[in-house]
Amino acid sequence: MNKQYERKIKENKPVVAICYDFDKTLTPDDMQAQGFIQSVGYDVSSFWEKSNGLAEKNDMDQNLAYMYTMLQESEGKVLFTKKSLKDYGAKIQLFPGVKDWFERIRAYAKEKGVIVEHYIISSGLKEMIEGTVVASSFERIYASSFYYNEKNVAEWPAQVVNYTNKTQFLFRIEKGTLDINDSGINDYFPTEKLRVPFRNIIYIGDSDTDIPCMKLVNANGGHSIGVYNPESQKKDKVFKMMHDKRIKYFAPADYSDGSELDTLVKAIIDRTFYNELLEDIHVKNKTEYEQDEANCSEEEKKKKSLLISLEESSSFKTTHTVISELRKINYWSPYEIEWLIDIALSNNQVGYILNDSDVSRFYKSIIDGTNSEKASELKKILEEE
After folding, report:
1. Cβ-Cβ contacts under 8 Å for 335 (sequence gap 6 or more)
2. Is the model's pLDDT at 385 over the cut of 70?
3. Which tens digit of pLDDT belongs to each residue from 13-64?
4. Burial of 56 from C-beta contacts in 10 A (0-12 / 13-18 / 19+)
5. How many angstroms separate the CA atoms of 20 and 102, rounded?
6. Which helix (H) or strand (E) holds 338?
7. Nearest-CA neighbor of 80 among 92, 72, 143?
8. CB of 363 within 8 A of CB of 382?
9. Hey, which of 147, 192, 329, 351 would disulfide with 158, CB 3.0 to 4.6 Å?
10. How are beta strands 154-159 and 15-20 bridged, if at all?
């Protein structure tokens, strides 16, 4: 039996999705290095050396390796439950301004007629992120997580997020199919029906692991931002990402009001509002055209094409050729007749050769019985010849 997943639908206002990596994007260090690693008796470098060594020796995903190492090293030392991981998360330090950033940006966007949603897409641990003071700020937290037994003790990885599969979550956000098991992510959506088109996605990250997401967002008209530690001011990584055309912008990871990053994101929100106004006009025009196209028969489309060709004719040769085709048509609506008369009176390439036998015969045949003011004007011209 297929489960029915709750899906987000397109809003009547533009939606901007701001997607964040977590480690070294919202916090200065890896989340595991801010309490957990020390609690199991390791220094940070030794723990990662062991974890990465395990991955290398066993052709293992590095994220699976660190999760396995956490499980193994916690045995007999610390509780490894959902609650304990959330408790470690509560100790995570955040960059300046992060605590009030999410609500502040949402409020700014609301004033501009834009809806902002915040998402985490991280290879870190979901349970730790859920323990932070900002956890409730996110629409969804996409991150690695554990399966827990009936005692809430972690037993097995439930979800592993690495740098390549991070991109799937951008497509989920785009379509509103946010549940990780919702196969609706594979459904086709017309561009105008997408809830958050890529042009309205902002991705904020700090390193190579964010490159697939940054590249995807960039390629589809969105905004990728590289951040660096405002304390160290080391820009090597963002310079490399800029060189490789992975990011459009970079700024210190300072989320305070009035900071470079704050100003940049607000400018993107401002631009989005006007971009979406133009997009709405485009969709309205496209819909009107498609309705007209659907309501026209093939014969009507052919006539319309010939009328436009006559209207735009810039040579006598073209005019004679088009008139030859027009003479093959047996029925003209009153609207089309008025259009043909307008062309004769306004296009010099037609007007100059009204006395040519083929053109004259055609026009006399279509205005016969037509009593409009313009038809009378054309009749006089034809009678003078």
Report:
1. none
2. no
3. 999 999 999 999 999 999 999 999 999 999 999 999 999 999 999 999 999 9
4. exposed
5. 11
6. helix 334-346
7. 72
8. yes
9. 147
10. unpaired
